[in-house]
Write a structure and sequence with these properties.
Blueprint: H1 14-39, H2 46-50, E1 57-65, E2 77-80, E3 86-91, E4 97-101, E5 104-107, E6 116-119, H3 121-126, E7 136-138, E8 146-154, E9 160-161, E10 180-181, H4 182-191, E11 248-254
Bound molecules: 2-oxoglutaric acid and fe (ii) ion.
Organism: Protea cynaroides
Domain Fe2OG dioxygenase: 55-155
Protein name: Fe2OG dioxygenase domain-containing protein
Amino acid sequence: MLRLRRSSSGGIFLSEISSEYCKRTREVARELLKGISESLGLEEHYIDNALKLEKGTQVLVGNLYPPCPQPQLAMGLPPHSDHGLLILLIENANGGLQIQHRGKLVQVKSLPNSFLVNTGDHLEILSSGKYKNVVHRAIVNGKTTRISLAMTLAPSFGTVVSPAPELLNSESNPPAYSGMKYRDYLELQQSNNSTKGSAVARKRLPITIVRGVNHSPNNYKLNSATIPITRALEFSVSDSTPTHDSVQTCQIFLQ
Ligand SMILES: O=C(O)CCC(=O)C(=O)O
Ligand SMILES: [Fe+2]
């Protein structure tokens, strides 16, 4: 149960709710990562230790999708994958999230009182592709307002994420992802966003994973639209549907 202090006006402080929510969900995500470490044949605290999650980053994103008069003409959030390791999502109404499965976007039916857990870009990098990031999008509807809350657990900004050496083999499984600081990864993602400050700013171009054995941290240019050493993750989805104007998202970073 959450016990929260009330402000003098009787309201509950958002910062307290969000930090309490993040604290609890961090525990859930770290617990899940123990199982994921083991499923990779690694020791249960491997990911936690390797990425120093004791001092990790959390991003709490709130998305508000008001009813859209012509939902077939607009998109809530275009297809993208999330940075970070694991994403715990809750929503107030079922039926807005679609994930890519076998090349097609399929509707997700969430269970009541449960988290929807997606795997993010950095789990794909760390696991050397054994876990794939989940490409997903949010659609809008004509009747109800949908709100979703996504908590991402990620390493600290200065942590370099690269494939776990234990999972690599120079012949059968050579490194396909380059190591990169989480901060640089985020900057790279942001530099690919042409518009900032609105829902469109969250439209991420499909360059979400930096791969390439020839990569060294010096041969990409931040703030440049062309990043020669990156290879776009092969999305079979291309979606040019415009984002619905009144969709609002807000991101809080906690370190
Ligand atoms: O609203 C949703 O279901 C998805 C939200 C999302 O993908 C995000 O915040 O990154
Ligand atoms: Fe997302």
